[in-house]
Amino acid sequence: MRMLLLPLLLLLPACSQAADGTGAPATAPQQASVHPVSGLQVIPLTVTAGDTTHEFRVEVARTPQEQARGLMFRTEMGPNEGMLFPYDQPRILSFWMKNTVLSLDIVFIGPDRRVINIAAETVPYSEESVLSDGPAIAALELNGGRAAELGIVPGAQVDW
Fold it and tell me: What predicted TM-score, i.e. pTM, was given to this entire model?
């Protein structure tokens, strides 16, 4: 058993070397890439409205199961956080607020990655559908009122 461990122990120092060979430990990413509550990947996203760019860290709900759950049951979200729902093909998107505690702005994003329309300050727990005004490739959920506060309007550019 000792003979098997010796080669492993010799490899450990090599694992902690920086890619540049200096021996300095590699730096960790500034923020976690997985959300601690949802377990979803977190990515940077920007919204540019006029001359102003707003930076967000958003959870990405990719699968139908992740999209169905969305922000249900969540009781808080930071001011520069959100959830992105990307789709492979443009389509009319429909969202509701069933089991969603937070009021949200739902920003619908077209194939050109520009805001089509915003369902502002949705009503928590509502089962009424809110729709995109045209075919969309994604929806971005932000805290209710945040889009207006930041001046995010139809035509704003969204990049992720």
Answer: 0.80
